[in-house]
């Protein structure tokens, strides 16, 4: 790899004594949904090999259970028997073609197990699963510790360089460590020395089973962010005991899955939690890894240069771009496909038992299926519409060797991304625009902006045409829809037209939520980490257990917003599984009234007349913003077909029911692969 001058701290090797890590990057653990798929280990091998080829220092796999009861799901993966070794060797042999180290994460789900055999420190149900765990007996605890030891021996036989023991995010070891779940009165409960006993004994067992030449990473919950979490003194006590027990590295864990504080979503400021790792560096000598919302080399370099940590963990950034490290090493950060923290194709998929992927990189976890070999018969392709679908298709098609011309009537690329980037907490879309700009330039895509196309202009000179022309808002059938109070979401977000102090937002899909957040959050908290912490109740002084403030400090918006939907279901029910609650909570904090089951009667000089359960009422508002209803923009489609032009529809031009960049970009990739 090229010797780096731009990011010297990030590219510096880390010496563990018995082995050396080639740089300071750790690919954080992510369950991929491939672990249980038929042929999944071959697909995982291709996925991890791409990241090893891309220069990652240490890869940590998705969580694998040390025994049956610790599984995340009924058919979840475990590493407990000799016949498991062969499958794992497929992964380690692929990774070890390169200098990258790979560690298997051993994760016992505890009460987070989504099955009736789950166990925990105490018989207390988690709020995120329907199953109540059994309380582990002392004999079962000791047996579980032995299971970890057996798993590590198998991991070593499989060729892994080490293990990460998952001790955070609210899983079993974390459940034992905190009073929130651990109500025991034996030697495994009560004082912190007793509550952390499981963690310490597991590390001792693992070290004894693995020997001295094996990496042991412990993922320690440094901020529980839940009531009944540990105090700072208790976290430090545990860290020192783990260091004494023989860990090689301590990785920072932030928050339980049931915590009501966002920790990795795009609205979280970059590197928002590195301060806690910096604080721990004063307490222990073992190398520390910091984590969460570190998604570009300059952010990682800054964290390391300031001495906040010895390594940085990035999980989703390596989904977005397998070559992140090589690009940084070659001082090509502008070429990195940046993780935007959306969760839509990664965590949202995994929590629905689907295969993980990435909104901005649909090839992630599909390395053996979504491929772009050079074509033997290059074509001249016209792409109309430079939104997410058009940009992505242009890149993938050009990668295959086609000659691509991308047209857009606007004077900038981006399409709907130019609207999304206006939303507080969605500034990362600027990075996606930067990536596509450089990628298209490098691939020789001819971009013609301010260039509206017609059937006449397209029917000659191109072998095929791809319409990525997006959507057009549908005009709603409401009396008074043409009133001067009415604005479209495009007028509000893109054209920045002024909006009054009292606003009705019609339509509570993703766009309705985005508009509502835009209206109530004047400035994004993502650029103000200190204020963001206070707003979400994070106690940076760690004066309270779990690092939670007794009362968040939040400045409520002066604007009054009503978010309305026709459906009678919960407002926001269709939002992302792992981020929907954040959007709802943000609007609730700002006093937005979310109202389902609404019929729209009339828009007049006084405001919006609505009907709920047969009761008519007037919402006296200054403006009504329409965020409901859009149709595919297919104005050119039939004419091109009639002219005999081979024409394809992708993105919003294909399906406009709910604007979906994830589907648009994936559809673009799939079409490019077939041409």
UniProtKB/TrEMBL annotation:
Its cofactor is [4Fe-4S] cluster; FMN. Gene3D superfamilies: Aldolase class I (3.20.20.70), FAD/NAD(P)-binding domain (3.50.50.60), NAD(P)-binding Rossmann-like Domain (3.40.50.720). The keyword Glycoprotein does not apply. InterPro entries: Aldolase_TIM, FAD/NAD-bd_sf, FAD/NAD-binding_dom, NADH:flavin_oxidoreductase, OxRdtase_FMN_N. Residues 380-648 form the FAD/NAD(P)-binding domain. SUPFAM superfamilies: FAD/NAD(P)-binding domain, FMN-linked oxidoreductases. Residues 10-333 form the NADH:flavin oxidoreductase/NADH oxidase N-terminal domain. CDD domains: DCR_FMN. One of its GO terms (biological process) is fatty acid beta-oxidation, unsaturated, even number, reductase/isomerase pathway. Keywords: Flavoprotein, FMN, Iron, Iron-sulfur, Metal-binding, Oxidoreductase. This is 2,4-dienoyl-CoA reductase.
């Amino acid at each position: 790899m090229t010797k780096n001058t731009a990011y010297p701290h990030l590219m510096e090797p880390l010496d563990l004594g018995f082995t050396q890590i080639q740089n300071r990057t750790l690919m954080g653990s992510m369950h991929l949904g491939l672990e249980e798929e038929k042929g999944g280990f071959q697909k995982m091998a291709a996925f991890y090999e791409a990241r090893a080829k891309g220069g990652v220092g240490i890869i940590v796999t998705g969580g694998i259970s040390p025994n049956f009861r610790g599984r995340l799901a009924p058919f979840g993966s475990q590493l407990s028997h000799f016949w498991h070794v062969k499958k794992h060797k497929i992964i380690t042999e692929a990774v070890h073609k390169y200098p990258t180290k790979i560690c298997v994460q051993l994760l016992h789900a505890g009460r987070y197990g989504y099955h009736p055999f789950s166990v925990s420190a105490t018989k207390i149900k988690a709020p995120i699963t329907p199953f109540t765990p059994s309380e582990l007996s002392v004999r079962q605890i000791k047996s579980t510790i032995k299971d970890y030891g057996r798993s590590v021996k198998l991991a070593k036989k499989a060729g892994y360089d080490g293990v990460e023991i998952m001790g955070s995010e609210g899983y079993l070891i974390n459940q034992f460590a905190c009073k929130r779940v651990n109500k025991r009165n034996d030697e495994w409960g009560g004082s912190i020395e007793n509550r952390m006993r499981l963690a310490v004994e597991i590390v001792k067992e693992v070290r004894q089973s693995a020997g001295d030449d094996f990496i042991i990473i412990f993922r320690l919950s440094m901020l529980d962010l839940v009531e009944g979490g540990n105090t700072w003194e208790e976290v430090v006590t545990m860290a020192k005991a783990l260091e004494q027990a023989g860990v090689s590295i301590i990785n920072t864990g932030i928050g339980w899955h049931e915590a009501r504080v966002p920790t990795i979503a795009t609205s979280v400021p970059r590197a928002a939690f590195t301060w806690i790792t910096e604080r721990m560096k004063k307490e222990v000598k073992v190398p520390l890894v910091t984590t969460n919302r570190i998604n570009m080399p300059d952010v990682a370099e800054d964290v390391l240069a300031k001495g906040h940590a010895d390594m940085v963990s990035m999980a989703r950034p390596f989904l977005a771009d397998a070559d992140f490290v090589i690009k940084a090493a070659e001082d090509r950060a502008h070429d990195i496909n940046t993780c935007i923290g959306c969760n839509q194709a990664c965590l949202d998929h995994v929590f629905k038992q689907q295969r993980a992927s990435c909104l901005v990189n649909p090839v992630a976890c599909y390395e053996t299926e979504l491929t772009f070999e050079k074509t033997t018969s290059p074509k001249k392709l016209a792409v109309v519409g430079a939104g997410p679908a058009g940009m992505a298709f242009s890149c993938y098609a050009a990668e295959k060797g086609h000659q691509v011309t991308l047209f857009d009537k606007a004077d900038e690329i981006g399409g709907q991304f130019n609207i999304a980037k206006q939303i507080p907490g969605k500034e990362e879309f600027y990075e996606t625009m930067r990536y596509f700009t450089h990628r298209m330039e490098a691939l020789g895509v001819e971009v013609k902006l301010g260039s509206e196309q017609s059937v006449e202009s397209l029917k000659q000179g191109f072998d095929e045409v791809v319409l990525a022309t997006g959507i057009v808002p549908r005009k709603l059938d409401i009396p008074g829809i043409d009133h001067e109070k009415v604005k479209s979401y495009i007028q509000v977000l893109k054209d920045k037209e002024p909006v009054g102090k009292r606003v009705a937002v019609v339509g509570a899909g993703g766009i309705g939520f985005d508009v509502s957040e835009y209206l109530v959050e004047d400035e994004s908290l993502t650029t103000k980490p200190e204020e963001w912490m206070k707003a979400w109740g994070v106690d940076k002084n760690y004066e309270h257990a779990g690092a939670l403030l007794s009362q968040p400090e939040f400045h409520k918006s002066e604007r009054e917003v009503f978010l309305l939907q026709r459906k009678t279901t919960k407002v926001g029910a269709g939002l992302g599984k792992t981020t929907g609650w954040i959007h709802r909570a943000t609007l609730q904090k700002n006093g937005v009234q979310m109202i389902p089951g609404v019929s729209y009667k009339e828009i007049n000089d006084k405001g919006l007349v609505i009907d709920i359960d047969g009761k008519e009422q007037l919402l006296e508002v200054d403006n009504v913003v329409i965020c409901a209803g859009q149709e595919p923009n297919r104005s050119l489609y039939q004419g091109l077909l009639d002219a005999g032009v081979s024409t394809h529809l992708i993105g919003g031009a294909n399906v406009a029911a709910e604007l979906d960049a994830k589907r648009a970009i994936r559809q673009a990739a799939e079409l490019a692969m077939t041409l």
